[in-house]
Amino acid sequence: MNTWRSASIAVAAAALLTLTAACGQERSGEDANGQSVGNAAPANGSYGDGYGSAAGGSGEAEAKAAGQLAVWKSKKFGDVLTDSAGFTLYRFDQDTAKPPKSTCAGECAETWPVVAADGAKAAPGVDPALIGSVAREDGTEQLTVAGWPMYRYAADKKPGDAKGQGVGGTWHAAAPDGEKAKAAAGGGSAGEQATDLPGMSTREDPELGEIVVDRRGMTVYRFQKDSAWPMKSACTGACLDNWPVVEPVDKNDAKGVLKKGFTVFDRPDGKKQQTIDCWPLYTFSGDSKPGDVNGQGVGGTWYAVSPEGKLVGAPK
């Protein structure tokens, strides 16, 4: 009995030591830049300041009317529905059109401000019968097109921006008939994957040097408020709209990156997230094409990743 118990304890201890070594316990609680990584405080890393909401406040942003709707003929996305000021309108896969229902509230509605139905008019050449509204819990009447609730995106700063396209795999620019906008011939959507790239690899950036990219060629980032041991993500909730997790990649489909600690993090929210050296990895919704590094340095907490999983360009 004692022999069996001793053997079991030894096996368990060996397994723990293996995991500890793989996940960088030898860092003694610091990352490559000397920053403490212990139990990171929960925070929502946003587009604007690394934590908090993209709209910069608490509670939902005030719903603004769309006015006379219009159609933007995008080379990338085809016909896209806009408000009277030329800002892209979006729809959310988790909503429903029959019956119309919005599931985006609270912090979500700060990042994705709702479009008020009052005074909205169909785009020229579009059936006015497609325009409708749905009552939200706060009493706001939200614009619907073919039953789908309409939103703007807080990170779109000027007419013609469509940074919300493909965010989280659930947000899409709306076509004039309320369907998802489709890529024009010869174009490509922000969520379209590049060809002939492994699941994870590296590229040489002219300013940052060698950095990690995903299978689409999009820049991969780390959040300074995360920790590697224990593996913990401080980017939750609405933060993930702006910083989608990198989905699991087979080790054999990763080229040029550190394989130690190349493991999958089972997040508390149920998502599975790829790590390098046990650091959780993300992409940035503000990057619209391969080669973009718009997430670099956002909020002083988000940075591109080296092949070894280190922060690139972070202050030391």
C-alpha geometry: elongated
Distance between the termini: 54 Å
Number of helices: 3
Order of helices and strands: HEEEEEEHEEEEEEEEEEHEEEE
Give the count of structural domains: 2
The assigned structural class equals mainly beta
Poorly predicted segments: 3-21, 24-58, 184-195
Radius of gyration: 22 Å
Strand order of the largest sheet: 8-9-10
Largest sheet: 3 strands, antiparallel
Beta content comes to 15-25%
- Mean pLDDT score: 80
Query: How many strand elements?
Result: 20
| Portion in helices | under 10%
Pfam family, one: Lipoprotein_15
Keywords: Lipoprotein, Signal
Organism: Streptomyces luteolus
Protein name: SCO0930 family lipoprotein
What characteristics describe this protein?
mainly beta; lipoprotein; Lipoprotein_repeat; elongated; 316 residues; signal; three-stranded antiparallel β-sheet; SCO0930 family lipoprotein
In words, what does this structure look like?
This protein has three helices and 20 strands. The protein is mainly β. Strand 12 and strand 13 form a beta hairpin. It is elongated and about 55 Å long. The N terminus is likely disordered.
Summary?
The protein has helices spanning 2-22, 107-111, 239-242, and strands at 64-65, 70-74, 78-82, 90-92, 96-97, 100-101, 115-116, 131-135, 141-145, 148-149, 171-173, 200-205, 209-214, 221-223, 227-228, 231-232, 264-266, 272-276, 279-280, 302-304. It has 316 residues and is mainly β.
Describe the SSE topology.
Blueprint: H1 2-22, E1 64-65, E2 70-74, E3 78-82, E4 90-92, E5 96-97, E6 100-101, H2 107-111, E7 115-116, E8 131-135, E9 141-145, E10 148-149, E11 171-173, E12 200-205, E13 209-214, E14 221-223, E15 227-228, E16 231-232, H3 239-242, E17 264-266, E18 272-276, E19 279-280, E20 302-304
Parallel strand pairs: 1-7
Antiparallel strand pairs: 2-3, 4-11, 5-6, 8-9, 9-10, 12-13, 14-20, 15-16, 17-18, 18-19
